[in-house]
């Protein structure tokens, strides 16, 4: 079944609202957790719509927060 409409172009939330750029910090794990999957993996740019510049900054700060144990490296899956 074909799509009726073309997919909408994703707009970077950091370009739309410049105040969000100040929130990109390892000290703000609640904000960074928005860019993690339920399993603790970093969600790719093509899914979130974040530009390359800000995605690199997000990845850097997420990794810093992980090293300080503010964010998990992985979430354990107890379904097995």
Features:
RNA-binding; 35% helix; mainly alpha; 80 residues; single chain; Ribosomal_bS18_sf; flat; 30s Ribosomal Protein S18; rRNA-binding; Small ribosomal subunit protein bS18
What is the fold's blueprint, element by element?
Layout: H1 13-16, H2 29-32, H3 45-48, H4 52-67
Task: Explain what you see.
Binds as a heterodimer with protein bS6 to the central domain of the 16S rRNA, where it helps stabilize the platform of the 30S subunit. It holds the Pfam family Ribosomal_S18. This protein is mainly alpha-helical and 80 residues long. The chain is built from four helices and no strands. The longest helix has 16 residues, at 52-67. The radius of gyration is 15 Å and the shape is flat. The protein starts with 12 loop residues before the first helix and ends in a 13-residue tail after the last helix. The mean pLDDT is 90.
In short, what is this structure?
This protein is mainly alpha-helical. The protein has four helices and no strands.
Discrete helix count: 4
Distance between the termini: 35 Å
Spans of 5+ residues with little confidence (pLDDT < 50)? none
CATH fold name of the domain at 11-16 and 28-74, please? Answer: 30s Ribosomal Protein S18
Biggest sheet overview: none
* Average pLDDT for all residues: 90
Helix content: 25-40%
Give the helix/strand class.
Answer: mainly alpha
Which class of the domain at 11-16 and 28-74 in CATH terms?
Few Secondary Structures
Shape field: flat
CATH superfamily of the domain at 11-16 and 28-74: Ribosomal protein S18
Give me the strand/helix succession: HHHH
Strand content: under 5%
**DSSP E strands, number:** 0
Radius of gyration, whole Å? 15 Å
**Architecture of the domain at 11-16 and 28-74, according to CATH?**
Irregular
């Amino acid at each position: 079944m074909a799509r009726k409409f073309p997919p909408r172009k994703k707009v970077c939330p950091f370009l739309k609202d410049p105040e969000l750029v100040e929130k990109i910090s390892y000290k703000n794990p609640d904000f960074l957790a928005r860019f993690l999957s339920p399993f603790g993996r970093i969600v790719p740019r093509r899914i979130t719509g974040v530009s390359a510049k800000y995605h690199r900054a997000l990845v850097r700060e997420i990794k810093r927060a992980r090293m300080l144990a503010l964010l998990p490296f992985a979430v354990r899956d107890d379904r097995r």
